[in-house]
Amino acid sequence: MRKTNSYLDLVLNPFNLFRTKKILNINPTIIPQRAEPEETSLYVYDYDAESVHEERLNSVSDCFTYKHSARVTWINVDGLRRTDIETICNHYKIHPLVQEDILSVGQRPKVDEIDDVMFCLLNMLYFNEKESTVEVEQISIVLGEKFVLSFQEDASRDVFNPLRDKIQFHQNKVRQSGTDYLFYTLIDLIVDSYFLVMEKLSDKIEMLEEDIVRNPNKKTLGRINQLRKEMIVLKRNVAPVRDMVAGILRSESHLLEERTERYFKDVYDHIIQANELAENYRDMMMNMHDLYLSNVNLKMNEVMKVMAIVTCLLAPATVIGGIFGMNFESIPWLHNPYGFFIAMALMLLIPVAMIYIFKKRGWF
Asked: What are the pLDDT digits (tens) for 284-323?
């Protein structure tokens, strides 16, 4: 992975072509090789309305005992190792196609129903303050009869901590409901995290707009280009989630209770709003690019206007000096003792009169 200082990188490479290649070079026909993580963690939450059991498992096989639990079981896997994923999925009888999707890279958000399980894949988004980039982490969630499996790429961060806290409270809605409500909560937390990323981007856009108005330069154009790329990442990951949630709402799976449908409608409303905000931000970036070009042209026009005025003011002196510098024997006032002073006075008075006329006409 390429690591550089963000400021130095922006100076040396203001248009960040490396980022462009990373964003646009996606070929679904090529099977990417996922690197094995150095660290993995496996947590299980087994709960009902009365009690909750939380445990960090030492091995994949330790989760097998929860398959036949009468309570709701949430197994969260951080760090995707092929052998671990295949072992868990085979034990819970999850189709091999779903296993391939879990281990895939760069998948489009989607929802599938295969062999009495519902599988959805979407991306969690994080904003890297140091690099000013939107980072993507693929999340896979499998809903079964009495279990929910979630698979994350990064073991060091996620957005599920609020859910973990809720599970600890006896009177919480999560504890009073089934696996479908847990499934909804996981998706809802991911969708809500999109707004946090968009708030960060909004701050960057606001600061950039101020810089464009005050002092547009090549570095500013580079920042515009960088933010436009991050908008591509945001739009690419937010827009398909709308179709994913709509697919869940259209589903007639027995795994989803009718009373949970209203909650997914709320998620659908949120993702519609997030998608509209992403569209607005993209339009703002286009307008900001036009504003940058307008300000640059305005600045150039101001420079050209000053240069034109200076040229006009020097023109009388040039004409007067040229006339009296001609090599003729008979030139009026050529031998006048005050001729030099008269010529200098004309060279000064005429530009002053011109400045007065220009100012009166509002030319500057």
From this structure: 888 888 888 888 888 888 888 888 888 988 898 888 888 8
Domains of the chain in sequence order: 6-295 (3.30.460.20), 301-360 (1.20.58)
Q: What is the pLDDT of residues 189-218, one digit of tens each?
A: 999 999 999 999 999 888 888 888 888 787
Integer Cα distance of 258 and 249 in angstroms: 10
* Per-residue 3-state assignment (H helix, E strand, C coil) for the chain: CCCCCHHHHHHHCCCCHHHHHHHHCCCCCCCCCCCCCCCCEEEEEEECCCCEEEEECCCHHHHHHHCCCCCEEEEEEECCCHHHHHHHHHHCCCCHHHHHHHHCCCCCCEEEEECCEEEEEEEEEEEECCCCEEEEEEEEEEECCCEEEEEECCCCCCCCHHHHHHHCCCCCHHHHCCHHHHHHHHHHHHHHHHHHHHHHHHHHHHHHHHHHHHCCCHHHHHHHHHHHHHHHHHHHHHHHHHHHHHHHHHCCCCCCCHHHHHHHHHHHHHHHHHHHHHHHHHHHHHHHHHHHHHHHHHHHHHHHHHHHHHHHHHHHHHHHHHHHCCCCCCCCCCCCCCHHHHHHHHHHHHHHHHHHHHHHCCCC
pTM of the model: 0.78
